[in-house]
Amino acid sequence: MSAPVHPGLRVRTSDGVELHVAEYGEGPLTVVLLHGWTLDHRLWQSQIAALKDRARVLAVDLRGHGRSGSSQLSDTNLFRLADDIHAVVTQCVPEGRVVLAGHSLGGMAMLEFAHRYPEVFERQVAGVALVSTTAEGHTHLSYGLAPWLGKVVRELETRGAALLALGGPLRVHRAVMPALLPAVRWLVFGDRVESETLRLTIAMISCASLGSIGGFRPSVGKMNRLDALSLLARVPVRVLVGNRDRLTPVKCTEAIVAALPHARLQVFDSCGHMLPLECPDAVTEALGDLVDEANG
After folding, report:
1. Inter-residue contact 43 to 279 (CB < 8 Å)
2. Closest CA to 77 of 9, 163, 182, 165
3. How do 9-12 and 18-24 pair as beta strands?
4. pLDDT tens across 42-63, in order?
C-alpha cells in the first residue's frame, strides 16, 4: 500500500479518544473508508491504491482498533462509533462532499451515524457503499450452520465476548492468533484465500484490543437501523455481499434492498465476509463507479 499524504491524522472524539486516520490523495470529493470488527484500515489497501488518484481518501481506524485509542467498556458501542464518524467528517471534511464505504461493523456504524446526525448526513453524503454488513444486528447470524446449532453457537459466542471485554486495552491474544488461523479462515473467508491475505487478517485482529473484540458484541447484536435506510434514498448506494458469508449472509441484504430499490446489489460467488480482500478488483470497481456517480 502506498504511503499516505500524512503519517496519520489524529481526530479527537467527543469523549477524548484519539482516532488514527490515514489520508491519501486529494480532490473535492472525500471517500471515508470504515473497516469491520476486529480489523483496521489496512482492509482497504487495494481500494486505497486505486482511488487515491481519483479522490481524497480517509481510511479510519475505529476506536479500539489499529492505531486508534481504546475507550472504556461503557463507550464501546455503535452509538460512540456514530459520534466518531461525525468527528471525522466535521473535523476532516468540514465543507466538502463525502462518499462513505463501510464494511461489516463499519457499515452498521454508518447507519447509526445517519440516524443520529441526519442533517450532516443529508448535507454532505453523496454516496454510500454497504459491504458485507446488515441493518438488523445478529438477526440472520447462524455462522453458516443449521439454525438451531447457529443459535447455540451465537449464545456461547456472546458469553465469550463478555469475558473478552474485561481485558480492556490489552492485546494479549496476539500470542495465540497463529493457532486460531484455521478458525479465522473458516469463519470469515469463502472458498479460496491467499496465504498473504490470511496473514494480514491475523495481523489486523492482533491489533484490536480485547475490550473492542468483546465490547462491541452486545451493541452489534441488538442493532436495528432499518429506519435509517430512508436517509439513503437520495444518494447512490452499492450493496456488496458474498454468497459464502457466514457473519452477514445474503439474507441481510433483503431488507436493505427492499427499502432502497435504487441500490445496486452485487452478490459475489464463492466469497465470504472479507470482500475487500477476497475480490479486491470487483470491490474497487464498485467504489470507483460510486465515486463517478457522486461526482456526476
Report:
1. no
2. 165
3. antiparallel
4. 999 999 999 999 999 999 999 9
Task: Evaluate the CA torsion angle 158, 216, 192, 174 in order and state its sign.
Answer: negative
- Assigned C-alpha cell, 182: 484455521
Domains of the chain in sequence order? 9-295 (3.40.50.1820)
Question: Rounded distance, CA 127 to CA 295, Å?
Answer: 9
Helices H, strands E: what count in the chain? 12, 8
Closest Cα partner for 4 from 36, 38, 63, 44?
Answer: 44
pLDDT at position 1 over 60: no
Mean pLDDT of 194-208: 96
Q: What whole-number distance in Å separates Cα of residue 28 and Cα of residue 32?
A: 13
Quick one: 182 exposed, middle or buried, by C-beta within 10 A (0-12, 13-18, 19+)?
exposed
pLDDT digits (tens, 9 = 90+) for 256-286: 999 999 999 999 999 999 999 999 999 999 9
Phi, psi of 27 (to 5 degrees): 150, 170
- pTM of the full predicted structure? 0.96
284 CA to centre of own chain: 15
Distance of CA 279 to the CA centre of its chain: 16
DSSP element (H, E) containing 256:
helix 252-259
Helix (H) or strand (E) holding 180: none
- Helix ranges restricted to H, 66-146: 78-92, 105-116, 118-124
- When the pLDDT of each residue in the chain is averaged and rounded to a whole number, the result is 94
In this prediction, residues 61-83 reach a mean pLDDT of 96
What's the rounded Cα separation, in Å, for the pair 227 and 231? 8
Question: Which residue did the predictor score with more confidence, 156 or 83?
Answer: 83
Which residue in the block uniquely carries the three cell numbers 491524522? 9
User: Cα–Cα distance between 66 and 80 in angstroms, integer?
Assistant: 17
CA distance 172 to 230: 42
